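To: structure desk
From: M.T.
Subject: fold request, one chain
Message: Could you run this one when you get a chance? Sequence is below, nothing fancy, just the single chain.
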Amino acid sequence: MQSVDQLDALREQVQQWRDDKRSIAFVPTMGNLHQGHLSLVRRAQELADKVIVSVFVNPLQFDDKNDLSAYPRTLVADIEKLESVASDLVFTPTADTVYPNGMDEQTVITVPSMDNKLCGQARPGHFDGVATVVAKLFNMVQADFAVFGEKDYQQLLLIRKMVSDLNIPITIIAGETYREKNGLAMSSRNQYLNAKQRDIAAALYQNLLSIKNKLEQGDEDFLALEKYAVKSLHESGFVPDYVDIRRADDLERAEKGDKSLRILVAARLGNARLIDNIACNLA
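Reply: Done. Structure tokens follow.
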């Protein structure tokens, strides 16, 4: 596996693959890789001849400087994991490579209707940073496909809308959420949890499944279901940001008669802010 940190070296390799008529898939990450990330790499390998993974902790998407400084950087271990699944290239740019003129002078992308709800409301400016860095990485890598995990469902829809609105020639593929044995969605932030908190954290997924079950049984009192889940999470030791039932295609609030739904949750437990979601199709 190749490891490059300069844009010229990346583009030289991409051009060589293009000359050889190779298709390319891309998996952007912030490192601290786990099996969920590796499942996205495997999905990418099903789609294309070559797979590029980026490892870059993007300062532009952090609304809390302490969160940025605390975010785990594990590049040596990340490279070993990518080698274990035979990734073709890892791109590890610095902030100076991604933002050569500094972040204060960086053109910023705002994706309307996706940045003002759920995690966008809880973390102002976060999704502007996500959209901006992903657009830049797309232009750097110039892949045919990009794979994003469904755990970050709002991010997935935001990237799809950005790609559509800006006519970026790349196909966005969703990878299924990879879970621990107790149902907890795998996340780099799970390492902030101690053993007891990891057991408690399973309640996130259980609450989602409970809401889904009640919806499938015909319960249409969305607000009551959300309030009950928030109360349950509080009692388990969480500090919930939200538990929401939304339309799956645009994340607007679900109404009676909507069939394709997404149930989403964000909550703090100890030092970790955890998110999760599941689909609920009533058709």
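Reply (cont.): Residues 58 and 133 are 7 Å apart (CA to CA). Let me know if you need anything else for the meeting.
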